[in-house]
Amino acid sequence: MRTLSGIQPTGNLHLGNYLGAIRNWVRMQDEMEGEKLYFLADLHAITVHNDPAELAANTREMAAALMAAGIDPAKAILFNQARVPAHAELAWLLFCTARIGWLNRMTQFKEKSGKNREGASVGLYAYPVLQAADVLLYQTTHVPVGDDQKQHLELARDIATKFNLDTGTETFTLPEPTIPAAAARIMSLRDGNAKMSKSDPSDASRINLVDDADTIMAKIRKAKTDAEPLPSEAAGLEGRPEARNLVAIYAAMADESVDAVLARFAGQGFGAFKPALGDLLVETLRPIATRLGALKADPAAIDAALEDGAARATALARPTLDAAYAALGLCR
Does residue 6 contact residue 63 with C-beta atoms inside 8 Å? Predict the structure, then answer.
């Protein structure tokens, strides 16, 4: 069993990133059998323009944040794509197997390119093939996917099947999707209908993993709510997006159900609930912020962890890449 997940190095991780993906990665690392590979998708990041210095800094910061949150490079393989050239090599071989019609059906390109499709990079159009290479390169058996990535994993399976059939080989394992443990969908503190996001111009809209206790408490205190008291069950939050979001954050951080949280706070207003939520966030995030600060102060240690992970990943990737070249009759 081999599980793989990737994340783009956007920098400045926030609570939505932590509860939406990273905490589940840590649990997978500690609870699931087999090898786990976690990579920073810096090759995917360059499908749109990036400042080179900022991308390099974001990659280190993301690696530090993952380790601070509990990813252990001794238990899992942590690396960034650019340190493992086999990702790009295999992607080209798969570009020659993937069909244009398949890529035309990918819905995320339409969303990401917006109205200027002709001005988008070829990489933005074809990056699902690089995603397929990311997965197939390691004979990955299981890939945790959310709703937005199911189509891309199906594409990876289609590419693997066609490659194997075209070459009369069994070069690639067909990966299976796994549904990760329920992750809270964390929304903006200023708008309960919008996802918490780094791109929001208001820093008050999100809890950053590097925020100190005073900042967290201030943001929660100023978070948008309504005047109604909390209900006794989840159904009572219908039509109250900001209230639902704050309760969901509490439930996720406390590892409780929304109904369990509401049973404890039923009938109380946000004057009582917000301080309790702020205290919970501060106590839970403080050790992560402390570890993150220490790691960011030692970039050499971050690079050493990524280099070691890349060496281990390269060793795992080499047999598959060699087999793919051989299957195509390519001599090197």
Answer: no
Enzyme catalytic residues: 112, 195, 198
Beta strands of 169-293 (E only): which ranges? 176-178
Separation between Cα atoms, residue 217 and residue 235, nearest integer Å: 27
- CA torsion 125-127-150-36 (nearest 10°) is -170
Q: How far apart are CA 59 and CA 45, in angstroms?
A: 10
| Host H or E run for residue 204 | none
Q: Which two tokens stand for residue 195?
A: 């996802």
Task: Report DSSP state, residue 81.
Answer: G
Give the tens place of pLDDT for each residue, 25-70. Answer: 898 898 878 899 999 999 999 998 889 999 999 999 999 999 999 9
pLDDT value at 111 more than 90: no
2-7: strand order across its sheet: 77-80, 35-40, 2-7, 142-144, 176-178
Give the pairing of strands 77-80 and 35-40. parallel
